[in-house]
């Protein structure tokens, strides 16, 4: 399945099937949360949260693609990501786009 953030796929006529999305809410366990809090004192990348967000984006993308496949889509265009802090140490990641069929 082709997944792009443009509103077209080169040299391909498309039939729009509809909006598809996938989301997840992720958090890290309290031990990593405490260590990440200490990291803010000295600065730098908080790798536990970077890894958490990467996992969340991957899972949200997978769920979006599964929804598109259930519609019989060949691809997804206009893919976007949105994030929202649900509570301290937990974030929602949503992936959404337009499912399309190749003509």
TrEMBL record:
It comes from the Bacteria. SUPFAM superfamilies: YbjQ-like. InterPro entries: UPF0145_dom_sf, UPF0145_YbjQ-like. Belongs to the UPF0145 family. HAMAP family: UPF0145. This is UPF0145 protein CCE28_10395.
């Amino acid at each position: 399945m082709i997944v792009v953030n443009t509103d077209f796929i080169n040299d391909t006529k498309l039939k729009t099937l509809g909006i598809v999305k996938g989301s997840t809410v992720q958090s890290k366990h309290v031990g990593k949360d405490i260590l990440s809090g200490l990291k803010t004192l000295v600065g730098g990348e908080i790798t536990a949260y970077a890894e958490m967000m990467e996992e969340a984006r991957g899972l949200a993308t997978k769920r979006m693609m599964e929804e598109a496949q259930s519609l019989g889509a060949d691809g997804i265009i206009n893919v976007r990501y949105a994030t929202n802090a649900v509570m301290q140490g937990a974030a929602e990641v949503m992936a959404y786009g337009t499912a399309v069929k190749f003509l």
